[in-house]
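Protein folding task:
====================
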Amino acid sequence: MKYNRVLLKLSGESLMGTQSYGIDPAMLTQYAIDIKAVVERGCQVAIVIGGGNIFRGLSGASKGMDRVQGDYMGMMATLINSMALQAELEKQGIKTELLGGLAIEPICKAMSRRRAIEAMQEGRVVLIGGGTGNPFFTTDTASTLRAVEIVADVILKGTRVDGVYTADPEKDPKAVKYQTLSYGEALKKKLKIMDLTAFALAEDNKLPIYVFDMNRKGNLLRVVQGKEIGTLVGDVETQRAAAKTKKTNKKK
């Protein structure tokens, strides 16, 4: 396994599947099965899910709602999604621990680094809802913060696209996919991988981000095993040197 401990970031919209809102049970099941395959091979997994399929704080604010109130509503939406995935994981026989930036008894305990790490070491999947627990921060920032806290090897950003492209591949057929990107390259090219706060936090902590297509069955396991199917953003020079060494060793 290339990665032993990962933070999986999923968007709320990804749970909609083919629906226009809410949670698609089929998509929920597919995600749970893919996560189970990784956990059964010994990888420790924490998950942060957005809430855009239910409510977005910024969207509410744009329509006149108080931004702080809207952001707290968005945090509650992330907890609803986390509870849904938790239920499906346990249905698949995977033990879980639900923690939150907001502690809501009896649903979840407050997020703490020690509690999350202990749960993962015991073989449980840790779901972390409620964002950072503060308004004005996105789930991108929350996922990066949590990844740093639990000392994850990488943030796995599961999307419906198989990596980062020069343009939107769904709109531009000439868009070219990047295999690797440094933090500086991604910022210079203004690629929308994560918001700037999340990206700065990842860069400061030398935390790599791997963007891949989560909607294709088995892709999560492929990524954890080291298959190059997406785009790696981070300390590219170190990664390239490691790949070169690996290639040289194979020749020997």
In short: The longest strand covers residues 5-10. The two ends are 22 Å apart (CA to CA). The chain has one domain: 5-251. The CA atoms of residues 27 and 129 lie 19 Å apart.
